Amino acid sequence: MACRSHWEVVPEARLDLDSDEPTFFDRHEWETIEAATARIIPTDHDPGAREAKVVRFIDRYLSSVDHVYASADGAGFLRLDGIMADAWAGHLDRMRQVYRDGVRTLDELAGDHHGQPFAALSDEQQDAVLERLSGADRPVPITSALAGGHAYGASLQSDLGLDFFPALCLHTRQGFYGDPVYGGNHEQVGWQVIGFPGPPSLAATQTCTYSVYHLLVADRDWADLVPHVREQALAKDPA
Amino acid sequence: MQVSKPDPVDVVVVGVGASGGTAAKVLSEAGLKVVGLERGPFMNHREQFSGDELKYLNRGYIAPNHDLNPRTYRNSADEEAELYPFSPCPQLVGGGTIHWAGWFPRPLPCDFQMRSLHGDVEGASLADWPIGYDDLEPYFTKVEWEFGCSGLEGANKFEAPRSQGFPTPPLAPTAFAVRFYDACARMGLNAFPLPMALVTEPHKGRDTHNHTGFWNQYGDPTTMKSTTLTSFVPEALATGNFELRPDCYVREVTLGPDGKANGVIYVDGDGNEVHQEAGVVILCQGAIETARLLLLSQSDRFPEGLANSSGLVGRNATFHEFVFSVGLFDKETEPLYGYSGAFVSGATFEFYETDESRGHIGGGVVAASQTAQPINWMLPGRPAWGSALKDADRDYFNHAMVLGLCLQDLPQHDNRVDLDPTVRDAWGLPVARITHKPHANDLAMSRWQVEKNAEILREAGATATLPVNLERCTGNTCHQHGTARMGTDPSQSVVDAWCAAHDVDNLYVLDGSVFPTSTGVNPTLTIMANAWRCSEHIADVHARGGDQTLAATGGSNHGL
User: Fold this and answer.
1) I need a surface site. Which of A123, A139, B180, B295 has the fewest CB within 10 A?
2) Domain count of the fold of chain B
3) Predicted ipTM of the assembly
4) A125 in any annotated domain
């Protein structure tokens, strides 16, 4: 059994990462999830989840354990092995069922209240379905929702145990902002929308040719930033 | 199953992270034959680490896997524990030093004397450490220079005396740190560049060029970040006295007929069971898994778990919840670039020592940090979906900063790690169950400091602040302490001042388990300094043929 440090890299070419063909969803599921992600991160004067190909990201994630971890340089994906592969396979099985059931629920809510499948509804109608699905009104701007404290959970944001809607919201974020090697964030549109420079490739973060060093503030010296340093220097040498 | 028995060695170290890596280095350099058992893999940092946010922060590439290594959590003993990835410290060679940002401050003398300073605090189980700042000072210096760090001597006006400065200067401040420094100066607060476990100038042949900003929670493909994987472990291996066995899962510490520990039983990566005998057994798995292993190691002599005659193994657990305020700044102002630098940049000890006018005792390090990368950037109360979500990300991703506190939770007898009665891991062993309920002092400290941080952020120019207070402990720092506390009285502690078990004198615990109180700083420097100190002692004892009779150190504390 190969442990994590010896997982083989499956080269990108063998995985056909540029393809837009569904590998897990059927055509209807693909269109439904694509429509839902486009309401989670909508297109406005900037690209949204649709342009970032978030549905492709989700489809690829659900397809097999061969798309869980990119290799460090992004030239391919790690082939999981042994009990770790089994654990991920079990997790993805559960997540696939969550999505299969989720698409059905979206269509049921759409049919019951608007008489058509979810993907055929207008933006407003789709938002109304998502309100029903989430059991809450559509979120208000953050500046209107500042009162009170906020819970903030674990340092790692996994999708373990999530129901369909929170999983869909999390995966949409991941597909919009994650490294493009995973099939979303197409042409880095997610990063451009929020002004994240982002590396040209994972390889550039491995070699560190990608750098944000220039964003540090180099023209303030410590005696200026930390008055205590200046005071100590003065105490030692009043001149 | 056939249990294989390799040749006995002088020392077996269980867990090769911050403390285990330190013990391996010190003992192998002293000439002892050491085997290190690590349940995770031995990764090649250059080939296997990079800045992939999804892989590290969402898919847990180096974290314990939820299905294979689950944990359970509950708020109090009358609740049913639920599956929860509490304190998911990485499992691989290097341990927590792989994913950490590298906050590397020294504690203050007061940290070792919480009981003397505050007496009986209702509901808490405060205890003094049997050692003090002065006992650790030479070892802080050794670790700072051997492991590598950056800092600016004299910048923290609250720091206790140090015998040497820092091996390398601080990284230049981030844009958000400059806001913090300037606000603190206007408020008369002493802010300083936090000592960090990274090198900014050539030191021991190290790299200095990871400026990707993919820092906290990521493995570093260079050697700029100080990790035991890239420093102490290779140094130990170079002695020829250290054998590292990764992917080995220790399930029991074994006891000989003489009542001494005589080795450990583990399952290797191919499923083979191995009994590694050793003259000394050292536990370095972190305060959760070390307590679990002791509790799993039951025998006629120790039916309640090894070295547990006090009943304190697993108790008095503390976890340092990270609480914070996020400041939002006007999008028309200069960007703060919350993904730049090495996560944390700028800190203060102004709120560290007790000031009872604040309504709580204790305190800790407060620091300005990144909001980090796009998927998971720290925006509490983020709208879940729709244009509100998109606008929040677009307007504030470059215009937000975090000012946080490692919350020094008070030890409590009932906050503990024990064995879950129903949930088992992939090896069929009961998992660690964490029971933790915040003390009233923890809640008060959180409320006061989070509001104070908001005040500093407003002075820095924030137009709105988002408070994140302690509600329940989530283990979000991966700091773990207290489950095998150090002390002189065997009825009130698990290990002595050299971190040898009172009940089993050749069994040592060198990780954060031994902390009687959690201190106001990130624990790793203190853990490593203490591991170095005790490893020298272990080597001394070995040199004298195993005679353990050495007087405990005094409790000398500078300035107290």
Assistant:
1) A123
2) 1
3) 0.96
4) yes
